[in-house]
Design brief:
- This protein is mostly beta strands.
- The chain has a domain at about 1-30.
- It has strands spanning about 10, 20, 25.
- It has a three-stranded antiparallel β-sheet with strand order 1-2-3, with no helix packed on it.
- A hairpin with a 5-residue loop joins β1 and β2 (about 20).
- The N and C termini lie far apart (about 30 Å).
- The mean pLDDT is about 80.
């Protein structure tokens, strides 16, 4: 997805692998093992509505 079509920044892990892309979601390979705690990411852009 080109940068101009994304609604926010890409998120990479410490090794430089892409983990999350706004509008697409979390990479399935970055998900936690069944039964392990997992974070949920959702990009909510600031629309300046204050």
């Amino acid at each position: 997805m080109p940068a101009w079509e994304r609604d926010g920044p890409l998120l990479f892990d410490a090794q430089g692998a892409l983990v999350f892309a706004p509008g697409l979601g979390i990479d399935a390979g970055a998900r936690a093992e069944p039964g392990a705690p997992q974070l949920l990411l959702r990009w909510v852009p600031d629309r300046g509505g204050g």
